Amino acid sequence: MGEKEGNITLFETKKAKDRVLYRLFSASIFVGICLFVVYRVNHVPAQGEAGRLGWFLVFIAELWFGFYWFLLQFCRWNMVYRCTFKDRLSQRYEKRMPGVDVFVCTADPSIEPPVMVINTVLSLMAYDYPTEKLSVYLSDDGGSEFTFYAMLEASQFAKHWLPFCRKFKIEPRSPEAYFTRSNAPPNHDSLFSQHWYSIKKLYEGMKCRIENATKQGKVAEEMRKRHKGFQEWDMGCSRRDHAAILQILIDGRKPHKTVDDDGRRLPTLVYLAREKRPQYHHNFKAGAMNALIRVSSKISSGSIILNVDCDMYSNNSESVRDALCFFMDDQKGHEIAYVQYPQLYENITKNDLYGSLLRVTTEVELPGLDACGGPCYIGSGCFHRRESLSGLKYTKEWKTESKRENNRNEKYSTTELEEICKVLASCTYEENTQWGKEMGVKYGTPIEDIITGLSIQCKGWKSIYYHPERESFVGLVPTTLLQALVQHKRWSEGHLQIFLSEHNPLIYGHNKIPLRLQLSYSPYSLWSANCFATLWYVSLPALFLVRGISLFPKISSPWILPFLYFNIAKYGYSLGEFVFCGGTVQGWWNDTRIWVFRCTTSYFFAFVDTMLNVAGLSESGFVVTAKVTEDDVSQRFEQEIFEFATPSPMFIIIATLAMLNMFSLLWAVKRVAMDLQYTILEPLAMQIVVCIIVIALNIPVYQGLFFRKDRGRMPTSVTIKSLMFALLACSISLY
Ligand SMILES: O=c1ccn([C@@H]2O[C@H](COP(=O)(O)OP(=O)(O)O[C@H]3O[C@H](CO)[C@@H](O)[C@H](O)[C@H]3O)[C@@H](O)[C@H]2O)c(=O)[nH]1
Ligand SMILES: [Mn+2]
Fold first, then answer.
1. ipTM for the whole complex
2. What integer pLDDT is reported at residue 1 of this predicted model?
3. How far apart are CA 429 and CA 176, in angstroms?
4. pLDDT digits (tens, 9 = 90+) for 569-608
5. Which of 85, 80, 78, 87 is nearest to 13 (CA)?
6. From the CB of residue 647, how many other CB atoms can be counted at a distance below 10 Å?
């Protein structure tokens, strides 16, 4: 920025204290691992001895767990926390704030309802930020006229909503979230309550019209007449085959036409459904983002870009200002490419049954990554500098170059501008260009965010993780077990693909980002690689228990100590960490369970699919997570009852493992209690303990298989198949 106003920092960085104790503790665990390896190496079963193979597999699994634990230490070694000075920002820059373009992506009106989408859009339009500098773009990959219609309604409703938010400084600024949280005006201030009731009525009316239109499958004729945009759908437009649709619903360049109830300008609002043709790959969200980068560069060209998913409304109207404190800081601002906010959720239940919050990642690992050189880009809730997102390298010149002014295209009419922009959102525009490779968001993986963030970091930019006290973005987590597992399959598959590609953080990042940052990416890269070790560990002890073959040290042997120490210290610490991050003990137990489920299903399928993908035998998809739930399903979700209901192969694996452990424990109990074979207890005690833990984790599975009557229970076909598989496995191991 180079102004002569003295260097006032706009943000501050604090280091976490007490890491020394943690490091000592972690060193002691490391010693435990080493001792146990010494034991294993010195107790290899002789050639021909029963259980040699099982013993080796368990050893490999243990080596893996130790190694994976080691990888998790890099992002725990140091942690930093950021705080901002928004008053300094506005003192200095209030009149010269940069343009901010907000990109919202939606993909399917049936699982991402238009009312939810516009609530997100409205919350973003209502940011506490100069409206003439703010533009909101919606990319609709569903190409739905109901979403378009909802946007049109939102553009009208914004005229009342924005002044209301401003006047009464309300939070959150998503109307749905606001009215759900406050059932009545919070005080009896008559002016406020008057406004409150009338706005609520307007909102309910709008919501009702949109929902009715969706239900009836058509938008009322008089509505259609009101906007030329509907003509696009009259020409016949299917979701996977249509021309680019681009409508500037509010043109911020026309201040006289687009004002709210208070006479203030409204933010620019744009609807885009990029061109879709069956013969062109559309590259999922990454393709949508790149179309938006180009289109917005012609319309508003804001120098800061915010990306949010359609379910993640803004819960904090000051987020833009917070983010700008980083970008506009005199000393460090010019190096910063993106500011990532945590992803928090509205529908998380108390004990977070499916572990969707990723609590420890949010509270510990991301601040840890920040200390290593910068967090990864995790999609929703991230502010970017336009240059770095578009693919430019960092150079020192950014410091001297003054902030780009908003170069709005004043010479064209709205319609002309729309036509110009449509070309930028066509299927062919990217042919023979660097889009998706060196420019914009990267293609070729279902987790475009991580790879894009990594490549930005490798181009010399820094990133920031900012976790303000008031949650900034609040979205929705999956409400069924299957959706939760499928989401993790997509993520872990994406991570492994990146790991196996030229973008492997350890190779691609070499000499470009700090080594500890490269290593901090590894636990995520190798998520799916946990599948084998976990599969062995939850099946082999049980199978060998049936045969009476010991895989672990005897309970009386001193070698049991390092083994116990590693596990007790690791899980004890993880419990402490989880509770310290605000979780409950039951929540930790759920988290541990879901980790095992993910390992044996999501990560396993992700691993297999990635291998097929590498071999060129399959292509990876993007299963969009549903944001709507049937009533009885959502009731069970709220009561924290597992939702099985579908005959998915994932559930067959889960149920088979659960039954296998149950059978072998019963077998062991029988031998001890009925045949009085106490001698087996000594060598097999550890295996019995492992079985008991697996069984305890699987209690909800047994309930779903045998005891529940509701619609969410395990389908009978899963019960039968898994019973057969488990019995088969037991008999094979017996004979
Ligand atoms: O073809 C597509 C597919 C998805 N989306 C949008 O992408 C977003 C994320 O999809 P969702 O199914 O909600 O995935 P999540 O797993 O919840 O999303 C996380 O993980 C994704 C990568 O897998 C990132 O893109 C997201 O930003 C991040 O929040 C949603 O707004 C979708 O509408 C599109 O626009 N086009
Ligand atoms: Mn989502």
1. 0.99
2. 38
3. 38
4. 999 999 999 999 999 999 999 999 999 999 999 999 999 9
5. 80
6. 14
- How far apart are the CA of 647 and the centre of ligand 1, in A? 25
* Per-residue confidence (pLDDT) for residue 258, from 0 to 100: 86
Per-residue model confidence (pLDDT) at position 334 = 94
Q: Whose CA is nearest to atom 5 of ligand 1?
A: 285
pLDDT tens digit sequence for 618-647: 888 899 999 999 999 999 999 999 999 999
For 541, the 3-state DSSP assignment is: helix
In short, whether 284's Cβ falls inside 6 Å of ligand 1 is: yes
Q: Angle of helix 448-458 relative to helix 284-299, nearest 10 degrees?
A: 60
141 annotated active-site: yes
Q: Are 620 and 497 in contact (CB under 8 A)?
A: yes
Residue set of the binding site for Mn(2+): 285, 309
- Domain ranges across the chain: 100-343+378-476, 520-734
Q: Cα–Cα distance between 458 and 642 in angstroms, integer?
A: 42
Burial state string for 332-368 with b = 16 or more CB within 10 A and e = fewer than 16: bbbbbbbbbbbbbbbbbbebbbbbbbbbbbbbbbbbb
CA of 506 to the centre of ligand 2 (A): 28
Residues 76 and 52: their CA atoms lie apart, in Å, by 37
Tens of pLDDT along 516-529? Answer: 999 999 999 999 99
Residue type for position 65: F
**Residue 449 annotated among the catalytic residues of the structure:** yes
Q: What is the pLDDT of residues 399-444, one digit of tens each?
A: 655 455 555 667 899 999 999 999 999 999 999 999 999 999 999 9
**Total residues found in the chain within this entry:** 735
Binding site membership of 310 for ligand 1 (Cβ less than 6 Å): yes
User: What's the CA-to-centroid distance between 23 and ligand 1, angstroms?
Assistant: 37
Global pTM?
Answer: 0.95
In angstroms, rounded to a whole number, what is the distance separating the alpha carbons of residues 666 and 659? 10
CA torsion through residues 13, 19, 20, 21, sign? positive
Chain position carrying tokens 């973008």: 503
**Cα–Cα distance between 142 and 139 in angstroms, integer?**
9
Q: Is 447 in the pocket of ligand 1 (CB under 6 A)?
A: yes
Cβ(153)–Cβ(217) below 8 Å = no
Which pLDDT tens digit goes with each residue over 350-395? 999 999 999 999 999 999 999 999 999 999 999 999 999 999 999 8
**Mean pLDDT computed over every residue of the chain:** 94
Q: Which of 108, 141, 352, 609 is catalytic?
A: 141
- Alpha helices, H only, 169-317: 175-181, 190-216, 221-226, 231-234, 284-299
**Ligand 1 pocket check for 719: Cβ under 6 Å:** no
Residue 2 banded pLDDT, cuts 50, 70, 90: very low
Other CB atoms within 10 A of residue 20 CB: 8
- Residue whose token pair is 């395990």: 714
Query: Which candidate, 606, 450, 576, places its Cα nearest to that of 517?
Result: 450
Classify domain 100-343+378-476 at the CATH topology level.
Answer: Spore Coat Polysaccharide Biosynthesis Protein SpsA; Chain A (3.90.550)
CA separation for the pair 108, 117 (Å, rounded):
10
Q: What is the largest CA-CA distance in the chain?
A: 93
Percent of the chain whose predicted confidence (pLDDT) is above 90: 87
Q: 284: which 2 tokens?
A: 């999922």
CA distances from 229 to 11, 12, 116, 149, 207 (A): 44, 47, 21, 9, 20
With vertex at residue 533, the alpha carbon angle to CA 530 and CA 537, rounded to the nearest 5 degrees, is 130
Tokens of 57: 């597999």
